[in-house]
Amino acid sequence: MTRYLTRRLGQALLVVAGVVALTFVIMRLVPGDPAVAYAGPRASEEQLAEARRRFGLDEPVYVQLWTYLRDLLSGDWGTSLHTRRPVLDDLYLAFPASLELVGAALAVAVVAGVPAGVLAARYKTKFPDFSVRVTSMLAVSVPVFWLALALQTVLASGLGWFPVAGEYDSRLDVTSPLTLWTNITVVDALITGNWPILTSTLHHLVLPALVVAAYPAGVIAQLTRATLIEEASQDHARLERALGFGETAILTRFALRPALGPVLSLIALVFAYSLVNAFLVEAVFNWPGLGRYAAESIRSLDTPAIAGVTLLVAVVYVLANLVVDLLQAVVDPRVRAR
Quick one: which H or E segment has residue 179? Predict the structure, then answer.
């Protein structure tokens, strides 16, 4: 297990190093002059020169790369040209809201997708299997932006069951101010016992979480079904049938655990996909996460902020894969020998 962990950590570090180098290249290829974006279009030549000196743009490329790596390792991810604050501080404020949304969506996806896949595998070629396959196909195929607008129009604006947008009722900032610990509103409300904000946040979270959960739930259901059907055809399943176990017991007691390995790997992939996919959902529901910050950064050609968002998503993706690989090694010891 130690050797496996060391190997995976080394691979993760290589991927992160590659992402850092690619992020630096992207920063240099983005159209526009960061000095102009920072100093303003009417800045004088002296002001532009000062801005270039401040951001090291007057240095050779290899010096800029070395400075960029050194600053990243020291926790300096640059200064946003738009907010004029350190990019890491901006990300610290924006990322928890996106993490809250994606975490809730993945919880919904796993809770809905795995049982749906088990049901489809148990009643293969029958009506429950057909229903699960059609529903999962629709969930995977529907455009996330369209689904967000549809749910918002029908369930929020039409029926009034859920709020149209926002993270929670802004009036609660006056009547029930929230003390921040993690910047994840649900967690902070639980820690501090702020039940009005907790209730309001959960109410606001339902629709965007359902939209983000649609794709991963559909994929998880399809993969769970496929892996369970494959496991149910193995020799151990034939032995279990000969011993008198029913199909439901074979699937849930014996086939489900080895079938969860590919599902865990898939969760790491859909986590990163959902994090980026949530950008559109955040725009529709005015959710204060990375999506809004990234959109504002792109509009203002804020290259340090764009690079910061790109690097953060890449690091989260690598860490998610690493965690899932470790979980796979625990669930299935055969993974460690690869």
Answer: none
Each residue's pLDDT tens digit, 280-315: 888 888 888 888 888 888 777 777 888 888 888 888
In whole angstroms, what is the distance from residue 139 CA to residue 142 CA?
6
Which residues form the domain of 225? 97-303
Residue among 114, 124, 128 nearest 266 (CA): 114
Does residue 74 sit within a domain? Answer: no
Across the chain, mean pLDDT equals 80
Non-local (6+) Cβ contacts of 114 within 8 A are: 220, 221, 224, 263
Among the listed residues 121, 137, 125, the one whose alpha carbon sits nearest the alpha carbon of residue 225: 121
pTM beyond 0.85, yes or no:
no
- The CATH number given to whatever domain includes residue 122 is 1.10.3720
Amino acid at 108: V
Residue 331 placed within a domain: no
Domains of the chain: total:
1
Asked whether residue 140 is assigned to any structural domain, the reply reads yes
Cβ atoms within 10 Å of 111's Cβ, excluding its own: 13
Q: Which residue has the tokens 């470790």?
A: 326
Tokens read off for 178: 């929230």
Residue whose structure tokens are 């804020």: 302
Residue 273: inside a domain = yes
Measured CA to CA, the distance from residue 126 to residue 111 in angstroms comes to: 22
